[in-house]
Specification:
The chain is α/β, with parallel strands linked by helices. The protein is built from 8 helices and 9 strands. α2 packs across α8 and α3 packs parallel to α7.
Length: about 240
C-alpha cells in the first residue's frame, strides 16, 4: 500500500518592500514656506515661528553655521561654550566631580549629583542620565579613565569647554541658566540649541544672534578665505531656513 503523500508546507507570503517613507504632509507644507535663498535673521525666525503648533510637543530651535575652516588643522578648530541670553528652555542635568568645599559649593549651586569614586563607578556601570559633566582640576586623575564612556557622547569635561574648572559652582550655575557647548564637526559645521519654538520671536532671535556673534569672534588667525559660509536655523520637525551671513 502506497504511503500518503506529505502535504507541502504553505508558501510563505512575500513581504512587499515599501521602501523608505517620504516626507510627511506636514513637513511638505512647511517646506513650501521656506524661501529659496537666505533671508535676514528676523524674517527667518518669523517663518520658523509659523511652524509652531504643528506638533504635539515644544520643538527645540537649533542654529548651525558652516565655516570655511580646515577641521584637520588643530589651530583652526572652533570649540567652546556660551550662556545664551534667554536660556534653552530646558533644565540641564549636571553632575560634578569635586570634593571638600568645592563639592559643597556645587551642591549649593544646584548640581544634580556630586561625587568622587562612587560617581565614577556609577558612570562606568552605564549610568549616563545627565547632560553636563563638570570636574575640579584635582579630580581629573579620576575622571580621565571615563573618557571612553563620556567622550563619544560629548560629556567629557574639558578645560577648553570650561567644564574643568576650580570654580565648579559658577559653571554649574551657568549651565543651569542655559549654557551650551559647541564644537565643529568634520565638515566644519558648528551648531547649538537656541531655545524652544514656544519662545517669543525676539528671544529666539537674540539667542541665535548671540551664538552667531560668539562664533564670529572665534575666527582662527590662521584661516585664509571666507570664515562664515552659511547659517541656518531649524526646529526639531521643521525644514531649515538659510540666514544671511
Amino acid at each position: 500500500m502506497a504511503e500518503a503523500a506529505t502535504p507541502a508546507p504553505p508558501a510563505e507570503k512575500k513581504k512587499r518592500n515599501k521602501g523608505p517613507k517620504g516626507p510627511s504632509k506636514r513637513f511638505k507644507q512647511a517646506t513650501e514656506k521656506v524661501p529659496a535663498g537666505a533671508v535676514p535673521l528676523a524674517e527667518a525666525v518669523k517663518i520658523l515661528k509659523s511652524f509652531d503648533g504643528t506638533t504635539k510637543f515644544d520643538q527645540t530651535v537649533e542654529v548651525a553655521m558652516r565655516l570655511g575652516i580646515d577641521p584637520k588643522q588643530a589651530d583652526q578648530l572652533v570649540r567652546g561654550s556660551i550662556v545664551l541670553p534667554h536660556g534653552i528652555g530646558k533644565t540641564q542635568r549636571v553632575v560634578v566631580f569635586a570634593k571638600g568645599e568645592a563639592a559643597a559649593a556645587a551642591e549649593e549651586a544646584g548640581a544634580d549629583e556630586v561625587g568622587q569614586e562612587e560617581l565614577a563607578e556609577k558612570i562606568k556601570g552605564g549610568w549616563l542620565e545627565f547632560d553636563v559633566c563638570i570636574a575640579a582640576p584635582d579630580m581629573m586623575g579620576l575622571v580621565g579613565p571615563l573618557g571612553r564612556v563620556l567622550g563619544p557622547r560629548g560629556l567629557m569635561p574639558s578645560p577648553r569647554a570650561g567644564t574643568v574648572t576650580p570654580d565648579v559652582a559658577k559653571v554649574v550655575q551657568e549651565y543651569k541658566a542655559g549654557k551650551v557647548e559647541f564644537r565643529n564637526d568634520s565638515a566644519g559645521i558648528v551648531h547649538a540649541r537656541a531655545g524652544k519654538l514656544s519662545f517669543d520671536a525676539d528671544k529666539i532671535q537674540e539667542n541665535v544672534q548671540a551664538f552667531i556673534d560668539h562664533i564670529v569672534s572665534l575666527q582662527p588667525q590662521t584661516l585664509k578665505g571666507t570664515y562664515v559660509k552659511g547659517i541656518a536655523v531649524t526646529a526639531t520637525m521643521s525644514p531649515g531656513i538659510n540666514v544671511v551671513a
